[in-house]
Write a structure and sequence with these properties.
By secondary structure, the chain is of the alpha+beta class. The chain has a single domain, classed as Creatinase/methionine aminopeptidase superfamily (Creatine Amidinohydrolase). Helix content is about 30%, strand content about 25%. The chain has a five-stranded antiparallel sheet with strand order 8-7-9-14-15. A hairpin with a 6-residue loop joins strand 7 and strand 8. Helix 1 packs antiparallel against helix 2. The longest helix has 24 residues.
Length: about 270
């Protein structure tokens, strides 16, 4: 039986926005710190401090047993990487996904960073995946259908660039639960799926592989990797559906400014 979609009031959307901006602040802090030699545990600790300093709880920590504040997924890891002792090096890409919970609501956002000298074809993957996120968001307006979002992302990444669009993992509703209805695939057909209505809050998050779309899960029960060992990119915003233009509740502005100021990161 399909889960019921819960549309949000303007007041509830503002609480979600508050948490999304806490997530944004945590990701901006990560953008300050990322460099060769730092570990994923170190950036996880820093992000947790930001979340708690804002009076919130890490949205991921303890969720389904996940042990950390951040999902840190580098190179061939698609999503759900557990922070550990891995030291980042020049040439790595790393998706950092963060959640926040306060006042009964969640926030969620993610960004993929490029450390040092990254191969040109991988940089292009990041550029296209980020662009596909905003193309998907542009279609998240009242009167469109859910399939219009996925179609646009798939068109830009898979049909035009021959990248692999992950099928098993999708975006989702956000609210009083971290993952709510509806599921938001990064593929689909125009004019299919539910009609988008005012007050729908969803996380749109393209997960795009450089080559084939196939994935597998590590023995830790969390880490998702590309089957062919090729890199994967992941970008995410939480948005509210509105009449003429989606309202983006998370914000990558400070994060991207910090990338420009961090000599260890590639501003793509």
């Amino acid at each position: 039986m399909a889960r019921r979609i819960r549309y949000k009031t303007d007041e509830e959307i503002e609480l979600i926005r508050k948490n999304c901006l806490i997530v944004s602040a945590a990701l901006a802090r990560v953008a300050e710190l990322l460099k060769p030699g730092i570990t994923s545990l170190e950036i996880d600790k820093a992000a947790e401090e930001v979340v708690r300093d804002h009076g919130a709880e890490p949205g991921f920590k303890g969720y389904g047993g996940f042990p950390a504040t951040l999902c840190v997924s580098y190179n061939d890891i698609v999503v759900h990487g557990i922070p550990g002792e891995y030291e980042f090096k020049s040439g790595d890409i790393v998706s950092v996904d963060c959640g926040s919970f306060s006042e009964g609501f969640y926030g969620d956002a993610a960004y993929t960073f490029a450390i040092g000298e990254v191969d040109a074809e991988i940089v292009e993957l990041l550029k296209v995946t980020r662009a596909s996120l905003y193309e998907g968001i542009a279609n998240a307006i009242v009167g469109n259908r859910l399939g219009d979002i996925g179609y646009t992302i798939q068109e830009l990444t898979e049909r035009k660039r021959n990248y692999g669009v992950v099928r098993e993992l999708v975006g989702h509703g956000v609210g009083q639960n971290l993952h709510e209805a509806p599921e938001v695939p990064n593929y689909g057909k125009r004019g299919r799926g539910i009609v988008l209505k005012e007050g729908l809050v969803i996380a749109i998050e393209p997960m795009i592989n450089l080559k084939k779309r196939d994935i597998y899960q590590d023995k830790d029960g969390w880490t998702i990797r590309t089957l062919d060992g090729q890199p994967s990119a992941h970008f995410e915003h939480t948005i509210a559906v509105r009449k003429n233009e989606a309202d983006i509740l998370s914000d990558h502005t400070d994060l991207e400014e910090n990338i420009k100021n961090n000599v260890n990161l590639l501003d793509f």
